[in-house]
Write a structure and sequence with these properties.
The complex is a heterodimer of chains A (242) and B (59). By secondary structure, chain A is mostly helical. Chain A has one domain. Helix content of chain A is 76%, strand content 0%. In chain A, 40% of the residues are buried. Chain B has 59 residues and is an all-alpha fold. Chain B has a domain of 37 residues. Chain B is 80% helix and 0% strand. Chain B contains two helices and no strands. Chain B is rod-shaped and about 65 Å long. The chains are: A mainly alpha (242), B mainly alpha (59). At the A-B interface, helix 2, helix 3 and helix 7 of A face helix 1 of B.
Chain lengths: 242, 59
């Protein structure tokens, strides 16, 4: 099926009907395997047992950034190609992205207290991640502030594209500034610096989180299409009443 | 399994992640039911989309 064919909401709804349970089942299976592998993996020589927090903190951070990037691509879809499902995809992704970014911030704080001696420091990585969370909240607020979905979609698309500048700042903050947060240890030109015993559960958990995101996102997109259908029906009812 | 002296932080991190994920799943499920109910209520009042009406008229 060509990508543009998915522009038809009816076709998307049919596809989502079987794809949501498949992704949800894959997420449950992958997360279960990841948790078993993660809690059976040896403790880290520096972090000790707290390394287990990384199995949720790191995938949540990747998804927080990845979902925002996806929203920026959807924003281009809204502004440039006017794809009918682009702003639906962006709107449905925002609360989920905010959720994963919140998980990243909370779990990071709970790791930081025993490891750094502080729940929070105004370090470039932590601060830029907080900015990402605030961007998500701003986008959610803007969606609610404008009633007409098309108009809201265009305004949010512009804000999303402006906020995209924060994504490389988050990613490279550990290289550009002297931070307490450690530099990248998985996505590096010279390969991961993590031992396979810890890297494997981390990657399985990341796949599980990604499958969970897909399930939630497709379901939320389906809800948004239904919400727009309700709005259309209410407008029709109002027009008939006049 | 022994989680050492920082067990409280590890458990709290997993609980926090679980709470956020459960809230996201509940939001999706409850929202789906609300939209379906709203559509059913409108259709019960005889309000349907033009495309649905056109199909009925063609019959």
């Amino acid at each position: 099926m060509a990508f543009y064919e998915l522009a038809n909401p009816h076709r998307f709804m049919t596809l989502a009907r079987w794809l949501v349970p498949v992704c949800a089942a894959a997420a449950v299976a992958l997360l279960a395997i990841g948790l078993v592998l993660g809690f059976r993996a040896p403790a880290d020589y520096q972090q000790g047992e707290t390394v287990r927090i990384m199995y949720i903190h790191v995938p949540a951070a990747w998804l927080g950034l990845g979902i925002y990037t996806l929203m920026a691509i959807a924003a281009l879809g809204t502004l440039v190609w006017r794809h009918p499902l682009a702003d639906v995809a962006a709107k449905a992704a925002a609360p989920i992205g905010a959720g994963f970014t919140l998980i990243c911030l909370l779990t990071g704080a709970l790791w930081g207290r025993p490891m750094w001696g502080a729940y929070w420091v105004w370090d470039a990585r932590l601060t830029s991640m907080l900015v990402l969370f605030l961007l998500y909240l701003g986008i959610l607020a803007l969606w609610r502030a404008i009633e007409e979905p098309g108009q809201a979609g265009r305004a949010v698309a512009i804000l999303t594209l402006v906020g995209l500048i924060n994504v490389p700042i988050v990613k490279f903050s550990v290289d550009w500034w002297n931070t307490l947060h450690q530099p990248a240890s998985v996505f590096r030109i010279d390969g991961p610096t993590i031992h396979p015993a810890i890297l494997t559960p981390l990657l399985v958990m990341a796949l599980g989180f990604a499958a969970l995101f897909l399930a939630l996102h497709l379901a939320a997109m389906r809800n948004e299409i239904l919400r727009r259908r309700v709005r259309t029906l209410r407008l029709l009812a109002a027009a008939e009443a006049c | 399994m022994e989680l050492g002296q920082h067990a409280g932080f590890i458990v709290a991190a997993y609980v926090a992640a679980l709470v956020v994920l459960v809230l996201l799943a509940l939001w999706v499920i409850v929202d789906h039911r609300l939209q379906r109910q709203a559509i059913a209520k409108l259709e019960a009042q005889g309000i349907t989309r033009r495309s649905a009406r056109a199909t009925e008229d063609a019959r």
